[in-house]
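Retro notes, item 3 of 5
We never archived the inputs for the NAI complex last cycle. Fixing that now. Sequence and ligand:
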Amino acid sequence: MARLKDKITIITGGASGMGAAMAKLFASEGATVIAADINKDNLAKIAEIGNVEGMNLDVSSDVNWAEVTKAVYDKYGRIDILINNAGISSEKSPDQITEDDWCLLHKINSFGPFLGIKHVSKYMKEARKGSIVNTSSYTAIIGSGFNHYSASKGSLRAIARAAAADLGQFNVRVNTVFPGVVETPMVAKLTEYKEAMDALVRATPMQRLGQPEEVANAILFLASDEASYITGAELVIDGGYSA
Ligand code: NAI
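Structure as it came back at the time:
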């Protein structure tokens, strides 16, 4: 199958978890993937996959985004798809959250994707085509207890809707997914929350956590031309947890 044949695709956070699952899947569907991540060691591993190239990117840096998007454009002549997937989590309760904590989460989870949209839209508008998919979180939709994390993902939701309204006239689509808890390295480190995880699984209609490939499959559809009239859409992928 080649549902993304020849699509030049940047996946942020492409060196781990859901981003790595997307890099593998998208490359297998014919895309040329630029896995853009801050983790150089993991980037080197993911770049061993055919049609996947690793590029160092700190999504919270305006300058860095300008360099990476220019490098991709100079090499390939276009940027077809951006997946704004990189993010960090925090389990701190409101009484523990400092100003620095708040700013860091927002700088990476909300300002980062905004910068991605800012920089790729320049090239996509010119080409009069493009597809952007953002990874928000179920915590942007329902009360989850993750205060500043939820806020950063809610901010991304609003940024994405505004961008969809702005960029539709240029044939640039912007959609967002809202995963529930997915078994990735981000979640694997939450060993002290085992009881809470078990309770979450019990409260999930499908009675299990998600797998990175299940999110990657949904994002593949939204990113591809199969979704050519879909923009501003919000797709929850959480086994029914927020239903
Ligand atoms: P992960 O921790 O496995 O992967 C995240 C990747 O983002 C890592 O490779 C990391 O190096 C990269 N990254 C972090 N800061 C960066 C920066 N400043 N610049 C560039 N890259 C950076 O996490 P996972 O679970 O695959 O998460 C992917 C996205 O999905 C994140 O935005 C996360 O918030 C979101 N999400 C995760 C859920 C889960 O249960 N795993 C649930 C809902 C949303």
